[in-house]
Amino acid sequence: MAGLIGGRAALAADVPVVRYPAPQSPLDNRSLDLINLLAAALRRTVASHGPVRLEESEEVLTELRQFAELNADRGSLHVTWATPSAQRQTRARPVLFDARRGLLGMRISLIDQRRLDELAKVTDLASLRRFTIGQGLAWPDVDVFEASGLKVFTVSGYENLFRMLLVGRFDLFPRGVGEVFGEFDARHASMPRLAVDPSLLLVYPYPYHYYFAPSQSALAARVEAGLLAMKADGSFEAHLWRHHGASVARAGFSKRRVLHLRNPNLPPEAERDIEANLAWWMKTPSAYR
Question: Mind listing the pLDDT tens digit for each residue in 209-230?
Fold first, then answer.
């Protein structure tokens, strides 16, 4: 969603640029909600801070490289988004506002359809440990699954994860509720054995924050002000349902067995947040039922 926010096109050359991470592949729409939310927060603050132009980074950057670029502060990247960690907060300036209200910590697995009957028999973490979890290299979720005694196979390259799942290098690819159906729909025609598990919901604390380059403290404060204004007037909730309501309805939370996992990178009080967030998402507005 690159483009001018506020101001006139004739004056666009004089407008400051805000660069965010380019998608990992042509099929990668995982961050569309975060880009739109960032744009909305900037739009809410045009009157007080002036126009800006949102642009994708020129390079496709892995998450590790995104934080390296933010820390280097060369201007190639001004903002990214991620779950919190002590290391990230030393390399970039976070805005501690959960941009997805915990939804990314509610996971439904992609699986080879030939394994669906096996997974349907899982009732607890002990029986889930028979399956190997696939994750991206250096993804923070690896710590979550390993802390629960689950085997994890890591893969470099986002699109490779789907291919490796179907050739049997691992058994399950847990995805956020807001991700899994879009990923399935975009790939099922070319990967007909790809399936969405209908039986389990893995739940763990996983807030998602914006992170800014060290020189961008004013931009970070501006975005935080816009987000808080959206939360106060209800437009943040409307944004969440607009982007994720159909997926939440499709997930059918009430029909799933819920397995809770611990996030070792977050304090114990984060467990309370996930319970409140799960209850909030289960109250699906009638428009999405």
Answer: 999 999 999 999 999 999 999 9
Report if pTM > 0.85.
Answer: yes
E strands in 102-169: 106-112, 132-136, 151-155
77 and 133 in a single domain? The answer is: no
Q: Of 117, 96, 84, 134, give the one whose Cα is nearest residue 198.
A: 117
Residue 27: count other Cβ atoms within 10 Å of its Cβ.
Answer: 15
Are 201 and 278 a contacting pair, CB within 8 Å? no
> Do 92 and 212 form a contact (C-beta atoms < 8 A)?
yes
CATH number at residue 224: 3.40.190.10
CA of 271: how far to CAs of 68, 101, 278, in Å?
A: 30, 13, 11
Which residues constitute the domain of residue 97? Answer: 3-101+208-247
Examine the domain organization and report whether 168 and 265 are in the same domain.
yes
